[in-house]
Specification:
By secondary structure, the protein is of the alpha/beta class. Strands 4-10-9-8-7-5-6 form a 7-stranded mixed β-sheet, sandwiched between helices. Strands 1-2-3-12 form a 4-stranded mixed β-sheet, covered by helices on one side. The protein is globular and about 60 Å long. The chain starts with a helix and ends in a 17-residue tail after the last helix.
Length: 420
């Protein structure tokens, strides 16, 4: 029996869509308005915003805004027209990807239009049906989607567990040998939910035992990790031993796009085979030139990274001092864990936004175990120590209310929409 596709879609909203009636515009697709920064407007009220990936505070730097505006005035948003392979290549695109890959310690790079799409396409092009992928169990959704597109077989290892990775590499290498293929290990530099780092040095050590290549997604590590902000591979001192590094611009660069960096022959293979770039319009020049300015600032102004870590250390040490569980984070990503269910978590978020003027994201099951709530805080160089102190004080109040059962009641019985 033929089913109408629209009828199926209308009857199956999906795991997030099922909550659209109560969450759309508030928990999902919320509108944060005003100048990008620690204080923005949500639902008509000013809130202290801990939910932007503007790590280094570059989004509203005058020199960055000027570079964006000048490039738009000079070239408009259309140039160049066409995909880079056909008619959309420029000296600026080529210079930027060369400068970027050199900064992260690789001899060649390829500029991509988007971070998420970029990682999907890299995995697809690097692997064939004869190859085997071994990936961390907490890998980002873009890695999972890339593997769905790839024809390679795949094994997963327990998060940052080198015993598990060793075991899966043993299986993967045997299968690759039988098939006449190779092995690709994929992990992240910084895991964006828990904030811990991929154990790159330990993974590299396993190269002495098994023949494989490593691809890392360092979206959260670029600009924040390492002595010079080159990323997590620099932090561990293993840049030369990581085969392919992908850095997205949506975090520290406060922009759009990304660069994949590796050996020249590997980059050429990606350039000539990555369908998502071959058939997509080139990144507009205002974004390219704006990103060049951002890279220059990251290279020459370490004070922004230092300010970020001043805020991070104050926030994380302050939360720990007050007894909060912030898990295993080693990066600016700051999760704060509470005991509670989804209903309680929903009430906590509404209370924070409506009564305390604090905006942060909530994460519940299945990302965290049942019976646990995670509030995810993203500190930036634009935040202040006073804002850190205020947030810790508010979290202490919220924790007390949660322990006392305040958030167990239905929302309509709590009067939490009446601002204090």
């Amino acid at each position: 029996m033929i089913v109408d596709i629209f009828d199926r879609i209308k009857g199956t909203p999906g795991p997030l869509g099922q909550y659209a009636g109560i969450g759309d515009g508030y928990f999902m697709f919320p509108r944060l308005e005003g100048e990008i920064g620690p204080e923005m407007v949500f639902n008509g009220k000013k809130v202290l915003n801990w939910s932007l990936n503007n790590y280094l505070g570059l989004a509203n730097l005058p020199e960055v805004r000027k570079a964006d505006a000048d490039a738009a005035a000079q070239f408009g948003l259309s140039a160049p027209m066409g995909a880079r392979m056909m008619s959309g290549n420029t000296t600026y695109h080529m210079q930027f990807e060369k400068d970027f890959s050199s900064f992260v310690g690789k001899p060649a790079g390829f500029l991509l239009n988007f971070g998420y799409q970029g990682m999907i396409s890299i995995i697809d092009v690097l692997t064939s049906r004869k190859d085997v992928i071994v990936y961390d169990s907490e890998s980002h959704a873009c890695i999972l989607d890339g593997m769905r597109l790839s024809l390679a077989k795949r094994f997963t290892f327990q998060h940052n567990d080198m015993v598990s990775l060793d075991k899966q590499l043993n299986h993967a290498c045997k299968l690759a040998d039988e098939q006449g293929g190779g092995v690709l290990v994929i992990t992240e530099g910084v895991f964006g939910m828990a904030g811990d780092l991929g154990h790159l040095a330990d993974i590299v050590e396993l190269k002495k035992k098994y023949p494989f290549r490593i691809l890392i997604d360092d979206a959260h590590g670029f600009g924040t990790m390492g002595a010079n902000g080159r990323g997590t591979a620099e932090h561990y001192g293993v840049i030369d031993q990581i085969d392919v590094i992908f850095d997205a611009f949506a975090k520290s660069m406060a922009s759009i796009g990304g660069v994949v960096s590796s050996e020249p022959e590997i980059i050429d293979h990606l350039r000539f085979n990555m369908r998502s770039q071959i058939y997509a319009k080139s990144l507009p020049l205002p974004l390219v030139l704006g990103n060049m300015k951002r890279l220059e600032i990251i290279k020459t102004h370490p004070e922004y990274r230092e300010k970020l870590w001043t805020i991070v250390n104050a926030l994380q040490s302050g939360l720990r001092k007050e007894g909060f569980n912030i898990g295993r984070t080693e990066s600016p990503v700051t999760p704060v864990y509470f005991d509670g269910d989804m209903g309680q978590g929903t009430n906590v978020v509404i209370d924070l936004r409506e009564n305390y003027g604090i905006f942060c994201s909530i994460v519940t099951y299945p990302v965290v175990p049942k019976g646990q709530i995670m509030l995810r805080i993203i500190p930036t160089a634009a935040h202040t120590l006073d804002q850190v102190d205020r947030t810790i004080s508010v979290f202490m109040e919220v924790k007390k209310k949660l322990d006392e059962g305040y958030y167990n009641r239905p929302i309509q019985d709590m009067n939490i929409f009446h601002r204090k």
